[in-house]
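Example 9 (inverse folding). The structure is encoded as follows.
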């Protein structure tokens, strides 16, 4: 789930969308278009006098990894703003819940949004809070579409109202292992995670593929993402003689980990997943001198140089004063799929959920077609590298 990257506009696989309220493109089946309720169309001309509907947001807007949630909420806001400007039959507002990324806040958040009578939710953003909140949304019959929660097990609960618009960690973890072992040639890998649902799940998927690829897990360890001193973990890595480190977790802890590894003399490769793909990873590491050379991955591409992305980038910059970042476009697509349902006349949670399950949506990042378990089919894992303090996409995994 990143902060503003200097000198670079970050967007995921985009196609053209008008900056002043033009609806997103459509597939052969569809035509697109903490805790307070806001009218997201206010800066885009507003909606008409039609029926008002609440669309929820659930994710971190404050806390150590808040930028990932902010990126998602911004993508949702832009989609709603544009919808309201061109669809007078309905006015959609956003009812946002700031989870701070904590699973312990999930019950209150889900209960609040349900009580507020939202018709659908964009989120939850993180896998841990999804694990806690999604059963509550399921029981209440509220469709939820995540732009970023990638834990594999979320799709294995038989939930009918759960959806996500990107590939899960059964793609990302093995893809990352393939890159370290097969492409970089590192055979002894230390696997560290932050004990979160997301981080531990990604690290487990990674470790399983390392051995399949002919490598070995030199050491496994877990750290406290709220801690400042990772000396115990760093000592284990150095003593193991690992030639590479993989970290499953978020950017706040990842930056501190690589900083302490480098200070202890570790010179091997460092890689982490999408939770760390944020410029604050570089900042927390102590700058480019430490972070340069680190690898990060995501089930999302950077299409900032794609001319078809120009109008979306322009609209996003105009609305938020910054270029789109990781998951902004996924959130935009997820929201527009829900808005397409509303535009079709599906205005209740059950009707929206039926629409999501029986239609496809051609968005900015991909054509979205949900399987019965809420997953999409397939997915490519993209590799980014920190170069001169910038996070740059340059490869895909095998």
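The amino acid assigned to each position is listed next.
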């Amino acid at each position: 789930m990143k902060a503003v990257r200097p000198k670079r506009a970050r967007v995921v696989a985009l196609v053209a969308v008008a900056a002043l309220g033009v609806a997103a493109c459509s597939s052969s089946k569809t035509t697109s278009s903490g805790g307070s309720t806001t009218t997201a169309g206010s800066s885009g001309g507003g909606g008409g006098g039609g029926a008002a509907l609440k669309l929820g947001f659930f994710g971190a807007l404050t806390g150590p990894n808040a930028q990932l949630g902010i990126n998602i909420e911004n993508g949702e806001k832009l989609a709603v703003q544009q919808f309201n400007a061109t669809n007078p039959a309905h006015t959609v507002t956003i009812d946002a819940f700031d989870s701070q990324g904590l699973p312990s806040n999930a019950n209150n958040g889900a209960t609040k949004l349900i009580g507020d009578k939202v018709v659908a939710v964009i989120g939850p953003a993180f896998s841990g809070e999804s694990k806690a909140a999604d059963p509550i949304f399921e029981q209440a019959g509220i469709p939820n579409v995540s732009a970023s929660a990638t834990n594999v097990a979320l799709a294995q609960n038989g939930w009918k109202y759960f959806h996500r618009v990107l590939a899960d960690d059964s793609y990302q973890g093995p893809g990352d292992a393939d890159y370290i072992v097969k492409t970089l040639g590192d055979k002894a890998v230390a696997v560290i995670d932050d004990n979160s649902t997301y981080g531990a799940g990604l690290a487990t998927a990674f470790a399983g593929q390392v051995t399949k690829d002919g490598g070995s897990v030199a050491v496994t360890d877990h750290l406290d993402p709220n801690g400042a001193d990772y000396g115990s973990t760093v000592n284990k890595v150095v003593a193991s003689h690992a030639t590479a480190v993989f970290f499953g977790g978020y950017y706040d802890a990842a930056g501190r980990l690589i900083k302490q590894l480098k200070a202890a003399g570790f010179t091997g490769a460092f890689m982490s997943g999408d939770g760390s793909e944020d410029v604050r990873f570089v900042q927390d590491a102590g700058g480019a001198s430490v972070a340069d050379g680190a690898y990060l991955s995501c089930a999302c591409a950077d299409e900032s140089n794609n001319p078809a992305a120009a109008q979306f980038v322009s609209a996003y910059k105009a609305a938020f004063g910054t270029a789109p970042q990781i998951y902004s476009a996924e959130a935009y697509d997820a929201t527009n799929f829900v808005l397409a349902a509303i535009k079709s006349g599906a205005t209740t949670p059950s009707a929206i959920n039926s629409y999501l399950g029986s239609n496809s949506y051609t968005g900015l990042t991909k054509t979205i077609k949900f399987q019965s378990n809420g997953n999409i089919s397939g997915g490519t894992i993209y590799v980014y590298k920190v170069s001169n303090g910038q996070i740059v996409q340059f490869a895909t995994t095998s």
